[in-house]
From TrEMBL:
Membrane topology: Multi-pass membrane protein
Domain of life: Bacteria
Species assigned in the record: Chitinophaga silvatica
Subcellular location: Cell membrane
Transmembrane intervals: 7-28, 40-64, 85-113, 128-146, 158-180, 200-216, 237-259, 285-308, 338-359, 365-388, 408-429, 441-463
Main location: membrane
A GO cellular-component term linked to this record: plasma membrane
Listed name of the protein: Amino acid permease
Keyword set, alphabetical order: Cell membrane, Membrane, Transmembrane, Transmembrane helix, Transport
Keyword GTP-binding belongs to the record: no
InterPro entries tied to this protein: AA/rel_permease1, APC_superfamily, Glu/GABA_antiporter_put
PANTHER family: AMINO ACID TRANSPORTER-RELATED (PTHR42770), GLUTAMATE_GAMMA-AMINOBUTYRATE ANTIPORTER-RELATED (PTHR42770:SF15)
Length: 489
């Protein structure tokens, strides 16, 4: 008999959980470059990426709710083990490259805790200061993760509220107060909502919006935690998406109102925006408080995620896809060797500070590489959503896109696939608004980065040995493996 006392998630509860998981303020300055037309990019990316991601992931998560592997399972069931391994590998590597970018923002926030804003800005622009903060905080988070402390999750929840939701609301309120008291807007409200598509390079920064929305696939695991998920889950997705887009649009406009377009800096402008509003309202004493809140939000998030994505690749590795060295754990079962390898990769990437002309250019190139790798994983996921409708057509789906037929899955997953492919192509082009240094370095980092990262799992798969499989691994076989074994009997 089913346990009827289990607490089910309400529509609005899941919507807010999605908002908390997806929204981050650190990317707002990049889109503030576009003024009024930034809203178009946010809405476009929500329609062709955010909503398709959540819906397709929900169907796949519900389809394999009792089996391990996540995106490895989803893609592997559709296209085989090699591409499944590529998908989980990209999810892990993408998060590893993401750490220096988010910690760069954290270092800037810490720099703005001081009261002398000229010195704060100079410190935030210092490459060696940023490098030191990134490495110290990251390795501290790694060592804490190795201890497996239970309070990390609580810190993350508080950090999400204190470091993201409250500052976002405050930024919007400050902009409204500024305009109502006669403040002069630096953004032209009469400019076009539609962007100038003739300037191809202008679309590059906009492709970064896809990374803003990345992670919505994680909400798919909650599809079975709702009553009547086929009706209520899409409702939660659309409400959560609407709130997310609203926060991003109003937050971006709030920065554009107080900072002239030509002065926008990708790493510093969020803090400068708060500073300018507080100075106008004669509340300068509040600037260090908001800087501490933003820094706390960043650090709490990193502390939680340092061990998170590596857990997925660890579980798959134990099933025979990684050498025994990467399957080693400490006394409390934490994947120590993978965490240390991840830390070395973060350290190596952080040393790019020395090569790139500025903190801002480093931030942008790593953000673009993160987008590229994550989008390859999403392309595989959307394609898998369609393919499994035909390869597992008779399997019961607790959550299904479209009541009958496959037309709607082609529309939704196809929209996500095409949107991801467009953003992938655009991400290779250097943005005209930012000094990224030598274009050759830009293309080399992105192209070679993609080639090396994508080739690595295929090489590992080619040399894997039966002895790599952990005897204690309980990884379930794929449906097509079970079919073969049944046919062989």
């Amino acid at each position: 008999m089913a346990n009827t006392s289990t607490v089910k998630l309400g529509v609005f509860t899941l919507a807010i959980m999605n908002v908390t998981a997806v929204v981050s303020l650190r990317g707002l300055p990049a889109e503030a470059e576009y003024g009024m037309s930034s809203a178009f990019y946010y809405l476009f990316a929500a329609l062709v990426f955010l909503i398709p991601t959540a819906l397709v992931a929900a169907e796949l998560a519900a389809l394999f709710q009792d089996k391990q592997g996540g995106v490895f399972r989803w893609v592997g069931e559709a296209f085989g083990k090699r591409l499944g391994f590529l998908a989980i590998w990209l999810q892990w590597i993408e998060s590893t490259i993401w750490y220096p970018t988010v910690l760069t923002f954290g270092a800037v926030a810490i720099a703005f805790i001081g009261m002398d804003h000229t010195n704060d800005m100079a410190l935030a622009s210092n490459k060696f200061y940023t490098l030191a903060v990134v490495l110290v905080i990251y390795w501290l988070a790694t060592f804490i993760s190795l201890k497996g402390l239970g309070w990390v999750g609580k810190i993350a929840k508080i950090g999400g509220l204190v470091g993201t939701i409250i500052p976002a609301a405050l930024l919007i309120i400050l902009a409204i107060a500024y305009l109502l008291t006669g403040g002069e807007s630096q953004m032209d409200f009469h400019s076009n909502f539609l962007p100038d598509f003739s300037k191809f390079s202008n679309l590059v920064l906009a492709s970064g919006i896809f990374l803003f929305y990345a992670g919505m696939e994680m909400s798919g695991i909650h599809v079975k935690d709702m009553n009547n998920p086929s009706k209520n889950y899409p409702k939660a997705i659309f409400i959560g998406s609407a709130i997310t887009v609203l926060i991003f649009v109003l937050g971006t406009y709030s920065l554009g109102i107080i900072i002239p377009r030509q002065d926008i800096n990708l790493t510093q402008s969020l803090l400068e925006g708060f500073d300018n509003y507080f100075n106008y309202l004669r509340m300068s004493w509040f600037s260090p408080i908001i800087a501490i809140a933003l820094a706390f939000g960043v650090l709490a998030g990193v502390l939680t995620w340092v061990a998170g994505p590596s857990k997925g690749i660890f579980v798959v590795g134990k099933a025979g896809y990684l050498p025994p060295f990467f399957q080693k754990t400490n006394k409390i079962g934490v994947q120590k060797n993978i965490l240390i390898l991840q830390g070395l990769a973060v350290t190596l990437l952080s040393l790019l500070f020395v090569v790139m002309p500025s903190v801002q250019s480093f931030y942008q190139i790593l953000s673009q590489l993160t987008v590229l790798l994550y989008l390859i994983m999403y392309l595989l996921m959307f394609a898998a959503g369609i393919a499994l409708r035909y390869k597992m057509k008779n399997t019961v789906r607790p959550f299904r896109i479209g009541k009958t037929g496959n037309g709607l899955i082609w529309v939704i997953a196809g929209l996500g696939f095409c949107g991801s492919l467009l953003a992938f192509v655009l991400s290779f082009i250097p943005p005209s608004q930012i000094k990224t240094g030598n274009n050759t370095v830009w293309f080399l980092v992105l192209i070679l980065g993609c080639i090396v990262v994508v080739a690595a799992p295929f090489i590992i798969f080619a040399v894997k040995k039966p002895s790599w499989t952990d005897k204690n691994s309980e990884f379930e076989p794929f449906h097509w493996e079970q079919t073969k074994s049944t046919e062989g009997k």
